[in-house]
Specification:
Two copies of one chain form a homodimer.
Chain A (H helix, E strand, L loop, with lengths): L11 H15 L11 E2 L6 E9 L5 E2 L2 E2 H15 L3 E12 L4 H18 L2 E10 L5 E11 L15 E4 L5 H10 L14 H9 L6 E4 L4 H13 L2 E5 L7 H10 L12 E5 L4 H9 L8 E7 L3 E5 L5 E4 L12
Parallel strand pairs in A: 5-6, 10-13
Antiparallel strand pairs in A: 2-7, 3-4, 5-7, 8-11, 8-12, 9-11, 10-12, 13-14
Chain lengths: 327, 327
């Protein structure tokens, strides 16, 4: 069945679409009430609240799809604040012409990723606009953070070690090669990382800063953190993990992995004395096998990259358009 | 300045757009931290969580714009659950070609409406897609409801009176006439109704059900409530308030106000003995002057409308496409 404008009118056609597709896949006691808002159990800790819209093109790609991305992106934003992600809303803007045979696996993938992350989809919305069969998804997320936890972009301290939780550039490379219709031996790294962060917290690691390395890549994220914390960041090029296929693509196209977006990688800052313990815990995680210590925090400002040849150069945040619609 | 794809890449151009437009207009202590998620103060009551996307076309119309709508829609969803709306996220999907001179007043209108409603915009997201200068906005909302409050679509009781808080069809009529480029002496009713509901709760009115009468109109909302609460709803056509200009338009185009969407009207169910007190409180509110008791709840099922001529007919939920992109 193709989506038509009537599916967004809020009447019977909208209700049936929601009942057939969304309500079944996402079913839980809170969502099933189908009220204007989801009433949630009282929380003890600090609520943490975030939202992202997803416009990735193509909507399905090796390693994931827009639905998986929409769950991971918001779950990871909560995880980066040290919160346990609990609830998501899922709002869909469907374009006319979208086939429900395309939409259904995306919904199922959202539901499966939400189960893996341990979050419930408790409310949602469906709109339809004229278009060419695409869709946009917004997820808002609500998590709970134990009172006293203080993980923040402002907490980098001179002496901290910086860990990247895996290879850089995979998601960017996959979306780019899909768009160019060239094949690549790589998959998007799209993954929910909340269990990894919760494990570090549970083991008592003193996390100063956790940030997911999305649009703009490590270069942009490192610059933002250095500016917010008023410190200098030194990265070592040789230590930054990059998948061989992605490295090859970068060589051919003149791309740099530190400018490329990821959907399942974190940059973590921790006191030097806890770095090895943290690295071990991360490497033991399903999504952390390739983690590495890639740099450190110093007095000063800006971001520098020590190159393999022993030189060093300034790293700037992404300028210009990067890769449109990467997430 | 026209929006280009580079404004959505997550690098410097995105940061500057956010700093210049969004961060200034929405500024508050939580948003200003610019973290991956907003860390909120501990809540005593039940968190209430909701989300809506807004795709209204045209994006500016008499009585409002997509920004005001995006705040009111989500604030009203929280109010309908008996929650005090506290925080919003605001996520923008901008189309290339959108002029920032068009976007800026929409942002300011969002900020002003948020101030009126008493909510803070604490997190957001900006994406850019190829298009013709339009935009979509998603707002997610978080409110707090006192433990023990129980307002629900399942709480209609036989004997309850039904109040509509003002004239029906205004928003629908305005969007329709804008689309048809005909003029109408009417304004969208787009308004935040949380203070009205909070006042009723503070005065101890026993609210059984509160629902905003949006897409699909009173006909659809009444049918949903009757089905959820397993009761029959009887509406009296003569008592339903309709603005004269809207009535005229309905006559010409063969529309029915009960099928038309609103953005600042509630349907409220309360025990008969509290109906007059509630009506008085609502009429004293800025957005409730035209409120009326329009019907009652009975044993049975479905929705019936008693017509001005003394007959009665079955009311069905909206079928087909209604008015596309009304909100």
């Amino acid at each position: 069945m193709k989506i038509e404008l009537r599916h967004g009118a809020g009447g019977e056609d909208t209700s049936r679409l929601i009942a057939d597709l969304f309500a079944q896949a996402f079913a839980n006691d809170i969502l099933n009430k189908m009220e204007d808002g989801a009433v949630l159990p009282v929380m003890q800790g600090n609520p943490v609240f975030t939202s992202d819209s997803f416009v990735v093109d193509p909507i399905t790609f090796p390693g994931g799809d827009i639905g998986k991305l929409a769950v991971c992106g918001t779950v990871n934003d909560l995880a980066c604040m040290g919160a346990k992600p609990l609830y998501l809303t899922a709002s869909f803007i469907l374009e006319t012409g979208l086939d429900t045979a395309v939409l259904e696996p995306i919904i199922k993938s959202m539901a499966a990723t939400a189960r893996e992350a341990g979050v419930q989809i408790v409310a949602g919305d469906t709109k339809v606009v004229e278009g060419k069969g695409g869709l946009f998804i917004n997820t808002a997320g609500l998590g709970e953070r134990a009172v006293g936890v203080d993980i923040s972009a402002a907490n980098l301290k001179p002496g901290d070690k910086l860990i990247v939780t895996g290879t850089l550039g995979d998601h960017h490379a996959v979306i780019l090669t899909q768009r160019l219709q060239i094949s690549l031996e790589a998959q998007s790294d799209c993954a929910p990382l909340n269990h990894m962060v919760q494990k570090l917290l549970a083991e008592g690691v003193n996390l100063h800063t956790v940030r997911d390395i999305t649009r703009g890549g490590l270069a942009t994220v490192a610059n933002e953190l250095a500016a917010t914390s008023k410190v200098k960041i030194l990265l070592e090029e040789e230590k930054i993990p990059v998948n061989e296929a992605v490295k090859g693509l970068c060589g051919i196209l003149g791309l740099e992995p530190i400018n490329m977006g990821n959907e399942g990688k974190l940059l973590i800052a921790i006191p030097a004395e806890e770095a090895e313990k943290a690295l071990e815990l991360i490497k033991a995680d399903k999504y952390g096998a390739e983690a590495a210590i890639v740099g450190e925090v110093m007095e000063g400002k800006g971001v520098r990259l020590q190159t393999a040849l022993g030189g060093s150069r300034r790293v700037l945040p992404l300028r210009g358009e990067g890769l449109p619609r990467i997430c």
